[in-house]
Amino acid sequence: MLRFLTAGETHGPQLTAIIEGMPSNLEFDFDLVNEQLARRQKGYGRGHRMQIEKDTVKVVGGVRHGRTTGAPIALVIENRDWTHWTKVMSVEPVEGDEAKRRIHRPRPGHADLAGGLKYNQRDLRNILERSSARETAARVACGAVARMLLGVFGIKVAGQVLRIGEVEARRIELPIDELIRVTEASPVRVADKEAETKMMALIDKAKKEGDSLGGVVECIVEGVPAGLGSHVQWDRKLDGRIARAVVSINAFKGVEFGIGFEAGEKPGSQVHDEILYSAERGFYRATNRLGGFEGGMTNGMPIVVRGVMKPIPTLYKPLSSVDIDTKEPFAAQLERSDVCAVPAACVVMENAVAWEVAAAFLEKFGGDSMEEVRANYENYLEQMRKY
Description:
Blueprint: E1 3-7, E2 14-20, H1 30-41, H2 49-52, E3 58-61, E4 63-64, E5 67-68, E6 73-78, H3 112-119, H4 125-131, H5 136-152, E7 156-164, E8 167-168, H6 176-184, H7 193-208, E9 215-222, H8 238-247, E10 252-257, E11 275-278, E12 282-285, E13 293-294, E14 297-298, E15 303-309, E16 320-322, E17 329-331, H9 342-365, H10 370-385
Antiparallel strand pairs: 1-2, 2-6, 3-6, 4-5, 7-8, 7-9, 9-15, 10-15, 11-12, 13-14, 16-17
Helix pairs in contact: 1-5, 1-9, 3-4, 5-9, 8-9
């Protein structure tokens, strides 16, 4: 079973991730992890934190001489901003002025109050430090390791922004490699240049007004064989697991596959994908309205999944809140933030989806070494060819 855990706070010394279940002899691509971390920090509308942090990974376990050993992989991402927070975030008791950094005014839309009530914390910094989207850097690093595995078997992952606020981008059909190239060159990760200009102008307007913007992002996974996931139990359905992973990303509030919620407006003849067969391709679908899934399993078509991100709740024109000490109303306390993190969230979503696909891949073709996984995979492809 492939799994990971992360630890660390937004202003602590580092983020740590432990990956368990990755087979041995996978060539570890350090540049790939750092590239994904750098992609997460880009995007029009990001805040000043991205000018401080230059995320890179340090591998401190599970890799030797450039290859995985089968042992747990330990990843560390240092927080450069830690130098300004050593007393505030000290693990040892502190006295004096640093106590003034206590947060007692919960911010609407954040985990502050719910977490404070749950964990009985009078300093809400103990909640926001972990609930911060900074944690997604560790998830991106884990997703990058998953991409290494998928890449060996020709599986590619791409993403694009489809909406920021009121501006919707046209869906431009491109080969996946071209989509990656075009969106990577865009400050807002869109292929539609007209929408790109409008999105950037809207972000500028929101920044001037002290507001924030959300949007919709899409992830595409190509090269996935049919049969990942399972119909036999609810928690083995891969689309369900991907949906959980996407909604677990900070500020994501919804997910859909293929034509998604549009399916509720159409008759079945305009929703389901007809099955075709050719000697070259084997079984395939005439369309991909269901986003690559039937019965919780991949059907051999590209996975197409979208997620909606709400506007970031930290605003420079703060909403009303209530002081947990005095119970009096106040304007919510400010923490530095982004105006729009949708382009960055697209990168996080790509890697969250990559992780779930890799986990399902290893469940299907699992082995303790890459050689064993490859043998299982090739045997399955041969089985499908004879079907």
